[in-house]
UniProtKB/TrEMBL annotation:
The keyword Kinase does not apply. It comes from the Bacteria. The keyword Signal applies. Residues 1-15 form the signal peptide. Coiled coil: none annotated. It comes from Pseudomonas schmalbachii. This is DUF1329 domain-containing protein. InterPro entries: DUF1329 (IPR010752).
Length: 449
């Protein structure tokens, strides 16, 4: 029994699979680990490679056209018929039908498995499969330097599935103008706008590889509106093992003209300009260290989830069209039937977080979290997240048209990640440097009004 216990312990920490198992990638599995076959009744088709560049026109400002513009909903789930579909809905979606019975609905469209990634990303996923392992019970990664994407394409437990979301392919160095809002219960809102730059260690020519070995991503966020917040800057160095080396963050206050460390930008520290409706690790549906939770892999299931939300992403849509009382305008959304991994996180004994439990639903094709359910210390469902997935076929990577987080108790919500009214869409392949763009000394210049 002692030998068995040691074997089980090893399997829960070490994650690299055998070359024979890794050979399934690109054969029975997609190159990043999803089931290539469709489901039994054909409502989920087989994956045949996804969308490629040229799938639809891209306008002069870089906004992607909708390759499925002529699609119509197969059916619409409402409070009146929700019981017919409840086995394919998340606890959060069911709660939104209870909270907003007259207005919340889910338009369901034909399932299209659009995910596609560059070949070099597929190659790196195979490297990850046979080399990457977790450290310290899942808090960090080792032997990940050669791959940098999709740590565990053939996962064995819950924290490995979560790491696939955290390490999914996010493209090249980018800049974008992005908007968020926290509407009042009557729908009134103020747009908070940011100019964001994102860099990856392997894509910054002046980064010291040794000092950046535990860095996943660099993000700088400059507040540009409203006027009362403009000029503030937040810089984050996101680490892989945040127990070994906590997330490093700095904030520049335009009024004081001072740069300070910002240790609160982690775990359940308040998120930037979110009016208390969101915490730091709600970003990107979940971002940051996984160490405060025990992560249980519940399994895989079929669910109606936000997918291919090109209509919601369109520059023809204004923020006032999206933001409505109670929830966003569901007429602009698109849901499809997909297989998702279900992972449940429960706060570890001796740790603390305002969410005592959180359930994550992660799309098998992209390893992107598309639905969340956060519970308070009483076990009551508190906040519900939806990630409105869209495939950037031009750059071949998963993306979000928007993210929402609904507070069922307060009756308010957060919506962020919108670029609809920006002059340009996301600008990729940016020539950033560590020294000029992602150091604390660069913050003061970035924050000049």
């Amino acid at each position: 029994m002692g030998a068995l216990a040691l074997t089980l312990l090893a399997s829960s920490v070490m994650a690299a699979v055998s070359p024979e198992e890794a050979a399934k990638l690109g054969t029975s599995l997609t190159p990043v680990g999803a089931e290539k076959a469709g489901n039994a009744d054909g409502s989920i088709p087989a994956w045949t490679g996804g969308l490629k560049p040229g799938a639809a026109p891209v306008d002069a400002n870089g906004f992607l056209g909708n390759p499925f513009e002529s699609d119509k909903p197969l059916f619409v789930i409402t409070k009146a018929n929700v019981d017919q579909y409840k086995d394919k809905l998340s606890p959060g979606q069911l709660a939104l039908f209870q909270r907003y019975p007259e207005t919340y609905k889910i338009p369901v469209y034909q399932t299209r498995r659009t995910a596609s990634l560059p070949q070099e990303v597929y190659d790196r996923a195979k490297i990850s499969a046979v080399t990457t392992e977790t450290t310290n019970g899942g808090d960090g990664l080792t032997n990940f330097e050669k791959s940098r994407n999709y740590a565990f394409p053939i996962p064995k437990n819950g924290v490995e599935v979560l790491w696939n979301h955290l390490t999914r392919y996010k493209g090249t160095n980018l800049s974008r103008i992005v908007a968020q809002a926290v509407p009042q219960t009557n729908g009134d809102f103020t747009i908070v706008q940011f100019s964001e730059t994102t860099g990856f260690p392997e894509r910054l020519p002046d980064v010291d590889p040794a000092s950046a070995s535990n860095i996943l991503i660099y993000v700088k966020q400059v507040t540009t509106a409203p006027a009362r917040l403009a000029g503030g800057v937040l810089l984050v160095h996101e680490t892989l093992d945040q127990v070994k080396e906590p997330r490093m963050a700095w904030a520049y206050n335009a009024g004081q003209r001072r740069v300070r460390r910002a240790p609160q930008v982690a775990y359940d520290g308040p998120a930037n300009a979110a009016d208390g409706m969101r915490v730091s690790d709600d970003n990107d549906m979940f971002a940051g260290a996984p160490d405060r939770y025990n992560w249980k892999l519940v399994g895989k299931r079929e669910m109606y989830v936000p997918y291919n939300n090109y209509k919601l992403w369109s520059p023809k849509v204004k923020y006032a069209d999206i933001i409505k009382p109670g929830h966003i305008n569901q007429d602009l959304t698109r849901y499809e039937l997909h297989r998702v991994w279900e992972v449940e996180g429960t706060v570890k004994p001796g740790e603390r977080h305002i969410y005592a439990k959180r359930t994550l639903f992660i799309d098998e094709d992209t390893w992107t979290i598309v639905e969340t359910a956060q519970y308070d210390g009483r076990g009551q469902l508190w906040r519900v997240g939806e990630g409105f997935a869209v495939h950037n076929y031009d750059k071949q990577l998963p993306y979000f048209a928007a993210q929402t987080l609904y507070d069922l108790i307060a009756g308010r919500y957060f919506v962020g990640g919108m670029i609809n009214e920006a002059k340009h869409a996301v600008q990729w392949d940016q020539k950033f440097t560590m020294k000029m763009d992602f150091t604390p000394t660069a913050l003061r210049q970035a924050g000049v009004r």
